[in-house]
Specification:
mainly alpha; about 0% strand; disordered N terminus
Length: about 210
């Protein structure tokens, strides 16, 4: 009797999820077609059928991993509301992302940085950067958008690599400098002296005694 082929339309996606699980648990060194097949509970031939090489599998895994932050960014109202301070909004967004599932964030960066050793991943890493730049360019110019991406990457890497705490106010100040945003006025009744405008800003200093 001929064996009936199992209908499993979600198998490819399950293999990608399994690859993410393996890398998250054992790092890139633990990734193989065999470990992924075992994680996904599929025959070994299924992984090689859908992904002829580990690089192909890593490309698919990196694309899926990148969806997390990209989705947060695209859905954030700061990108469409010109009355929302962009620096403060992005600082809060980074806090929400880093404050979520830390292992997932570390996994995304591990795959992202794997492009240093695996040239096949570099176009995907570049795609992610360009997609974020394009999203941010709706609120600023392309050069500033690219600088924002570089700064946000740097802040996230510092937090992850030093196991430090994320400082939202620090991130807001640094991002505001990139955007040349005017400094926040001190709270009402504060004795804090007004801060001078950022270099190159046309905004006058904020006088807390003005009513």
């Amino acid at each position: 009797m001929a064996r009936t082929r199992r209908h499993d339309p979600g198998r490819r996606e399950r293999i990608v999820d399994a690859a993410l699980a393996v890398v998250g648990r054992a790092g890139l060194g633990g990734l193989s077609h065999r470990t992924v097949a075992a994680e996904a509970d599929v025959p070994l031939g299924s992984t090689t059928y859908h992904f002829a090489s580990l690089d192909e599998l890593l490309v698919a895994a990196l694309r899926k991993a990148n969806e997390g932050f990209g989705r947060l960014l695209r859905e954030h109202p700061a990108l469409t509301d010109p009355d929302t301070g962009l620096a403060a909004a992005l600082a809060r967004l980074l806090g929400a992302w880093l404050g979520g599932e830390r292992a997932r964030v570390e996994l995304e960066y591990e795959l992202y940085l794997a492009a240093l050793r695996r040239p096949a991943l570099r176009p995907v890493a570049a795609e992610w950067t360009e997609s974020v730049v394009t999203a941010l360019a709706h609120r600023t110019d392309p050069v500033s958008a690219r600088a924002l991406v570089a700064v946000m990457d740097g802040i996230c890497l510092q937090v992850l690599l030093t196991d430090g705490d994320y400082d939202e106010e620090y991130a807001r100040v640094i991002l505001a400098r990139v955007l040349n945003e005017a400094p926040k006025p001190p709270p009402a009744g504060s004795n804090e002296a007004p801060k001078p405008p950022l270099p190159g800003s046309s905004e006058p200093p904020v006088d807390p005694t003005d009513t």
